[in-house]
Design the sequence.
């Protein structure tokens, strides 16, 4: 028989159409065919048939399946099998158009990836020709729409690959003919717009290609509130600039995240795994919840299910450990940030508002076949922002989460005895278990059938081959403790963990308990040395003892070369309990202090290497632990990147431990790195956490430094309205302390805040006061240098280039930042900007080149992007237009991934200047319009006027006098309202405006 789903449901035998029955019978047949050779669970079939199932639903389903069996028995008596929880249609020798389509499409994709485009086109044509119309065209019912949509997504994916192949073959006519109806049917599929643009550009119809982008932009912004993604934007830019665009590769343009941990071998669980997978096969419940006690194997089961379903979710799998069983569960909005980055969303496009972030996440997954695995959920509130409404979501939790609806809930039971014994034998040895099967069965019973407990016992047996199983059985039977939330009958996992704990040497027991104090998800080896307060070799030996019995899990080496470890959640809970009773509070506090001291010493060393350390007063840590110090010396930025989560957790821990000065010092030591790498959420979180502690009872000198850093964080995010309040509090604290240096910093920030808000008289009053106060110090040094630098930058920003150059030269004379430091790069960058505005382009090039060398040497990607843009301005002014284009391309590449809209807009403005210098008026207009749009969004009024003035010049050059007049009126209105003249426009050399 040949079954058909890609159109009306049909069954044929030797070309003859066979009856498929009435509507419900046809729907049951379709569901069984979609799941051919796999279990179709009874409850999912019922859900597909009835919105509100009648009490006789199972009986009616049975009758429908029986009718299908009778109808096709003459051809295949064994076509449909009855299973305990559903039915399976065995395809065997029969044909199914859906299966043929998938096989041909996959072969076509493989041929395309291998470069055999002619063969790929033929295979994909055959695959798409199997479609006779909309899938399941003659069916309706509660589950039909979702199933039909799933199949249509597969059709679209194959069609997109065909378009890729046709483009690679240069067959633009075929692409244009076939893409038009696809765009109409899928108006938000960005790849289709890209195909259309590439085909039009390839056919020499460049203006039409750019018109397609404008339509796509408007459709996406108006309908779903999102701008086009980076690939479509890049295609538009390359077509706009007349550069060739390579045809798209056959794989999907969107990143395909594969975040699942490695699958573990499961003992038993086969039927349960199959049933869970059946619920997530695309036709069942979109959310499946696995609940049960810790150590029962929920995480391993979830990961195994997710690996099995990889082909069902071809767009990828997202994974997050929500740490619900830990003291501080993961913040769902930080998880969203990680997910959105994995989905290809640039950092610059990540919304700060939590609700907007949720909306963007769901929009990205709305049309994707993607599985999201959320491990160890704390509660419903933590989960809700992460639920997608489409695709599949697999959740594990210790709690029932009764308010999470709708959901398919599975209680993961303890292992049956036979499976638990097999698991024990895997770890302890087959021969050993076979020699005493009765003792083995009793051991796993006493472990409560929990996989973690069984594994711990097996590990202990493995490292003590002389211990008889019966001896261990007797010791297990004598234990009667329990972890409060982890119980199976009257047995629990606590007794099993205690057996391993009690067999350890004294230092290993001590380290295990103290590791429960670590709040980071994983940690480097030096942590053990700090907690034990012992030499590094001894700490290494003790940690290895814990790893040998699987109480600590080695995770391998990180990017900095450090060995990393984690403590399993159940072992950590046991250790926390014992630690509260087994160690005096003074020793616990000492261990926490040493741990935080280690983090602070290493963060301080790394911050000093970045060359931008504030030198803020605070706790003086001991020398950094050597294991960590080596990693810091190898690369400070890389070390910060690796330890970011641990450092954020350390700030939280110091605050919770009532150590506000330690929290403040840690937050300050992280500040340069977090700002440099654009980790805005972590930056603000650590600073605000430390500020709360400092206000409540910490050092007010540190509070002033924290407020200074918070000001920078708001400034970097262009949150200008928040700046005055932070600067005012900073000034009040500094004045109360009578600290001149802190007062200068606060005045400088007050001036910068006023500058950003267009209050220029106030800005220069504060900045001049700051400079005067700094000059009055006996040894002004860096303080005066930094303050002069800020004042010089402000004078440049408002159009007084000559004064700016003088101030910045004085700043360099009174204070020379350490060579190779971020401060040195920033100082040269500001000087280069002022020299450019003053028309001294050769000198500007020298200053900016020095800044670029430093930024590259320290790995400051963001600073490098700013300097590249400034050097492009110099190159454009000196007629080196090809060099300018290359520099701006590099700058844009960074700004696509870092949340700095001001820098992004400046680079677009520079692109506009470059295009104008080349006489490409339409390209210049497009780039300048984008820049002005960004500046208006962030409230950058002076920059807006600069963009409008350039648009006037371009419109006039293009002969559009009406547009030029309109732009002229707008920029003059903006500058007039600010009290600035045309010098603030920073127009390129040779550009004049009409009077």
Sequence:
């Amino acid at each position: 028989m040949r079954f058909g789903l890609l159109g009306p449901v049909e069954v044929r035998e030797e070309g003859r159409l066979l009856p498929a029955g009435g509507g419900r019978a046809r729907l049951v047949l379709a569901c069984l065919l979609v799941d051919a050779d796999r279990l179709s669970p009874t409850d999912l079939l019922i859900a597909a048939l009835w919105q509100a199932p009648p009490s006789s639903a199972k009986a009616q389903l049975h009758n429908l399946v029986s009718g299908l069996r009778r109808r096709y028995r003459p051809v295949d008596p064994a076509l449909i099998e009855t299973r305990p929880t559903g039915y399976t249609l065995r395809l065997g020798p029969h044909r199914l158009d859906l299966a043929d389509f998938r096989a041909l499409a996959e072969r076509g994709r493989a041929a395309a990836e291998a470069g055999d485009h002619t063969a790929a086109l033929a295979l994909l044509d055959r695959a798409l020709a199997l479609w006779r119309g909309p899938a399941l065209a003659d069916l309706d019912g509660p589950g039909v729409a979702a199933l039909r949509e799933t199949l249509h997504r597969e059709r679209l994916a194959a069609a997109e690959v065909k378009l890729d192949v046709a483009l690679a073959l240069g067959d633009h006519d075929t692409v244009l003919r076939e893409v038009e109806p696809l765009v109409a049917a899928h108006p938000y599929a960005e790849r289709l717009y890209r195909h259309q643009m590439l085909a039009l550009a390839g056919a020499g119809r460049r203006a039409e290609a750019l018109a397609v982008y404008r339509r796509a932009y408007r459709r996406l912004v108006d309908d779903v509130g999102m701008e086009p993604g980076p690939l479509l934007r890049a295609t538009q830019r390359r077509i706009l600039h007349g550069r060739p665009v390579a045809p798209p590769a056959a794989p999907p343009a969107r990143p395909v995240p594969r975040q699942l941990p490695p699958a573990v071998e499961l003992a038993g669980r086969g039927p349960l795994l199959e049933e869970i997978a059946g619920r997530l096969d695309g036709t069942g419940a979109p959310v499946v919840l696995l609940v049960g006690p810790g150590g029962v194997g929920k995480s391993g089961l979830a990961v195994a299910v997710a690996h099995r379903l990889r082909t069902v979710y071809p767009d990828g799998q997202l994974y997050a450990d929500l740490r619900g069983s830990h003291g501080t569960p993961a913040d769902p909005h930080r998880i969203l940030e990680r997910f959105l980055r994995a989905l290809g969303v640039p950092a610059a496009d990540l919304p700060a508002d939590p609700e907007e972030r949720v909306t963007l996440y769901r929009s990205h997954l709305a049309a994707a076949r993607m599985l999201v695995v959320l491990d160890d959920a704390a509660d419903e509130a933590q989960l809700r922002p992460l639920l997608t409404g489409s695709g599949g979501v697999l959740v594990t939790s210790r709690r029932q989460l009764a308010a999470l609806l709708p959901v398919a809930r599975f209680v993961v039971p303890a292992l049956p005895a036979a499976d638990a014994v097999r698991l024990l034998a895997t770890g302890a040895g087959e021969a050993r278990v076979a020699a005493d099967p009765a003792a083995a069965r009793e051991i796993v019973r006493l472990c409560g059938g929990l996989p973690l407990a069984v594994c711990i016992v097996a590990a202990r047996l493995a490292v003590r081959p002389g211990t008889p199983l019966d001896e261990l059985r007797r010791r297990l039977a004598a234990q009667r403790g329990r972890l409060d939330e982890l119980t199976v009958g009257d047995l629990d996992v606590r007794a099993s963990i205690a057996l391993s704990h009690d067999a350890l040497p004294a230092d290993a027991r001590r380290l295990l308990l103290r590791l429960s104090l670590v709040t980071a998800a994983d940690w480097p080896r030096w942590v053990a040395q700090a907690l034990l307060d012992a030499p590094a070799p001894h700490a290494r030996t003790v940690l290895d003892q814990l790893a040998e019995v699987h109480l600590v899990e080695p995770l391998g080496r990180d990017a900095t070369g450090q060995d990393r470890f984690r403590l399993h959640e159940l072992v950590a809970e046991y250790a926390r309990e014992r630690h509260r009773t087994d160690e005096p509070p003074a020793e616990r506090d000492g261990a926490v202090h040493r741990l935080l001291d280690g983090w602070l010493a290493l963060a301080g060393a790394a911050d000093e290497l970045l060359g931008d350390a504030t030198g803020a007063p605070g706790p003086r840590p001991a020398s950094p632990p050597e294991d960590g110090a080596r990693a810091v010396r190898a690369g400070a930025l890389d070390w910060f990147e690796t330890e970011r989560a641990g450092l954020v957790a350390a700030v939280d821990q110091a605050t919770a431990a009532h150590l506000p000065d330690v929290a403040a010092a840690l937050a300050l030591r992280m500040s340069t790195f977090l700002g440099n790498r654009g980790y805005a959420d972590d930056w603000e979180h650590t600073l605000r956490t430390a500020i709360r502690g400092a206000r409540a009872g910490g050092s007010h000198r540190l509070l002033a430094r924290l407020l200074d850093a918070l000001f920078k964080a708001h400034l970097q995010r262009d949150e200008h309205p928040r700046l005055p309040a932070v600067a005012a509090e900073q000034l009040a604290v500094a004045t109360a302390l009578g600290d001149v240096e802190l007062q200068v910093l606060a005045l400088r920030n007050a001036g910068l805040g006023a500058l950003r808000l267009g209050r220029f008289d106030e800005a220069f009053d504060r900045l001049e006061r700051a400079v005067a106060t700094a000059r009055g110090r006996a040894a002004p040094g860096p303080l005066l240098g930094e303050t002069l630098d800020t004042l010089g930058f402000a004078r440049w920003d408002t159009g007084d280039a000559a004064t700016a150059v003088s101030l910045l030269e004085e700043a360099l004379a009174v204070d020379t930042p350490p060579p190779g430091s971020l401060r040195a790069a920033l100082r040269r960058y500001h000087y280069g900007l002022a020299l450019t505005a003053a028309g001294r382009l050769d000198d500007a090039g020298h200053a900016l080149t020095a800044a670029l060398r430093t930024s590259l040497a320290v790995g400051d990607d963001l600073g490098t992007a700013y300097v590249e843009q400034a050097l492009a301005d110099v190159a454009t002014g000196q007629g080196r237009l090809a060099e300018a284009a290359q520099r701006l391309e590099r700058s844009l590449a960074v700004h696509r991934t870092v949340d700095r809209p001001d820098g992004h807009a400046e680079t677009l403005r520079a692109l506009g200047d470059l295009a104008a210098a080349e006489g490409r008026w339409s390209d210049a207009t497009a780039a300048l319009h984008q820049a002005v749009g960004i500046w208006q969004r962030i409230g950058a009024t002076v920059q807006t006027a600069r963009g409008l003035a350039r648009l006037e010049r371009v419109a006039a050059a293009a002969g559009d006098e009406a547009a030029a007049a309109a732009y002229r009126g707008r920029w003059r209105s903006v500058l007039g309202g600010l009290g600035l003249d045309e010098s603030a426009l920073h127009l390129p050399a040779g550009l004049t405006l009409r009077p």
